[in-house]
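Please produce the structure of this protein holding 6-chloroguanine.
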Amino acid sequence: MRLDVLTIFPEYLEPLNVSLVGKARAAGRLDVRVHDLRQWTHDRHHTVDDTPYGGGPGMVMKPEPWGEALDDITASGEGEPVLVVPTPSGRPFTQELAAELSGKPWLVFAPARYEGIDRRVIEEYRGRYDVREISIGDYVLAGGEAPVLVMVEAVARLLPGVLGNAASHGDDSFAPGEMADLLEGPVYTKPPEWRGHQVPDVLISGHHGRIRRWRRDEALRRTALHRPDLIERCDPGCWDRHDRSTLAALGWAEGPDGRFGRTPPAVEE
Ligand code: 6GU
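Below is the modeled complex.
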């Protein structure tokens, strides 16, 4: 997979040389190219921003450097890239979207600073490429570089051969499978006792069926506590009999449609 990142802070992308992504690059599975947007400016001050039309606070990134840079970068490869524009007003980045992007041969990231990029840049490339405006969560960052790091890590670990053990992402929170739609529960390693804290007996029991059940119960408890919206959103097919009794014991009420809710369903008069 080829990844290009176009930014005014190339040094912000240094973490792409480290750990999982760094190793994927070294192994030749990822071709990452970071570009300094200011290379595509022509004035002495390498200006990339200007005041907003219509007034208001902050500055807006000028269209010309982005246009010239994106034209050069996209002309330098084969086929059409997916253009990823990180923005808090984009659609949410999810595991599903990470998986979709991991199947693309070429991603070009365009992280902005200031109040964002002149809208005409998105309009221009919408006509030519698959353009995705993506947000990594409901909070506001000062620029799109940290979101690029987040998205690249989520995508890179899904590439074949990047994560050492293929089973490692099977039980990820948000990955499909037996634990689909549940957060991951706690994990333990040796020693069996540490500062008076014990590893749960069931994990040492060797009863694989009971271990799986316990892990699922823990995942359910944690999801109910931290992400009740995920429990409510699950269709009735998510839950087996044991899950239903676990949820009931956690104070959840089963509605007539088999979905669970935090409060008892309203009763018809
Ligand atoms: Cl992608 N960019 C910025 N600046 N802030 C964000 C974001 C992106 N996602 C959440 N907050």
